[in-house]
Amino acid sequence: MITLKHGDAILHFDPSVGNIPGWEVMGRRPLHAAPWRDEPAVQNSADIPQVNKRLAGDFLCAPFGVDDVQGDPPHGYPANSAWEPLVQDPSHARFRLKAPVRGAVIEKELRLTGPVLYQTHHLTGGTGQITLAHHPMSRMEAGGRLSFSPKRMALTDPLPQYDGNNLWALNQMQPDLHLPCEDGSDWDLHSYPAGHAVEDFVILAEERGRHLGWTALMREAEDDMLLVLKDPRILPVTMLWISNGGRDFSPWNSRHTGVLGIEDGIAVGATGLKASLAENRLTAMGVPTALTLGPTHVIRHAMVSLPRPPGWAELREVTIGDGMLNVSDMSGDHLSVPFDDGFFPR
Question: CA geometry: angle at 143 spanning 195 and 329, to 5°?
Fold first, then answer.
């Protein structure tokens, strides 16, 4: 395990699988680690992918989900194999994935600055096309509220995550953040379905022309706020994974509850790589669903852990400028925290 520290923040990185099992900011723990990470029966199983055995925090997926083209492990080698340390100081580190992906060399950079975690991935070389996504997960003891940068469409997958355990109706496209459910009711995506034992998934396509995409999670019991930031020109979709006790098989065993994945990426969803490489519902809208490997791609992603201001339930706007991240809620109240305003290209 490799540890980074800056001020009141501490981060643990597991180079054996490339994920972040722990990130703490002034006592807040915004990321989730699966409860079976140290259970011998799970760790010794030959039937469970490494990414699920060690499921935690955030990690890079390349390709995202099932590789039904070349048969790489679920979420690809970046989430299942070792990363070699290249550079490390107290608050910054760089790593290289030991296993090339379609011939591409992938390097990961982590940087802590107060409550902000910056991540950068460089993909150099390689041939063909892949999907790609970040995979941060947070857990809520008693649910939470979500806010988003403007989206142009919400889509559900054609097939369920786990048959019979989806809340939302399958294979739908909606122009707003309200989804019809299997029982005929409507669901507002601003609320986490805490009272439903489900395994569900939705894809949100970013509004055209935006240079900053964001998702905010306000956890009720934890009384905090997690901001997830992306460059939507590179990662044009945000995929929300709801894991709330809906999987009853090993290692999940109905105990994986209150978990939300905020998966910013370039993919058509969880239906497999082949579907993302073909013409699909998103490409028909002009939204790319695969990355063409070539000289160099730079993937930038940031997360910010903050206490939730009293009375805040939904964000209105998130902007970056003059060395600050500026956040305002629906009432117009705002807060600002220092942020590297050169991190995301304009």
Answer: 135
Query: pLDDT of 162-183, one tens digit each?
Result: 999 999 999 999 999 999 999 9
End-to-end CA distance of the chain: 35
One DSSP character per residue, 202-268 reads EEEEEPTT-S-EEEEEEETTTTEEEEEEE-TTTS-EEEEEEEEB---STTTTT---SEEEEEEEESS
3-state helix, strand, coil in the chain (%, to 5): 5, 50, 45
**What values do phi and psi take at 313, rounded to 5?**
-135, -20
Estimate to the nearest angstrom the gap between the alpha carbon of 122 and the chain centroid: 18
pLDDT at 201: 97
| pLDDT tens-digit readout, 46-79 | 999 999 999 999 999 999 999 999 999 999 999 9
Confidence of residue 8 (pLDDT cuts 50, 70, 90): very high
pLDDT at residue 346 above 90? Answer: no
116 bridge partner residues: 113, 304
Third-level CATH fold of 2-338: Beta-galactosidase; Chain A, domain 5 (2.70.98)
Render 89-145 in DSSP notation, one character per residue.
ETTEEEEEESS-BTTBEEEEEEEEETTEEEEEEEEEEEEEEE-EEE--EEE-SS-EE
Supply 55's token pair. Answer: 């499921």
Q: CA quadruple 71, 75, 81, 85: dihedral positive or negative?
A: positive
Q: Where in the chain are the domains?
A: 2-338
Please say whether the dihedral angle defined by the alpha carbons of residues 214, 218, 222 and 223, taken in this order, is positive or negative.
positive
The pLDDT value recorded for residue 214 is: 98
pTM above 0.90, yes or no: yes
Which of 225, 288, 273 is closest to 72 using CA atoms? Answer: 273
What number of CA atoms fall less than 13 Å from residue 315's CA on the CB side? Answer: 24
Condensed to tens digits (0 to 9), the pLDDT of residues 208-242 reads 999 999 999 999 999 999 999 999 999 999 999 99
- Cβ–Cβ < 8 Å for 167, 242: yes
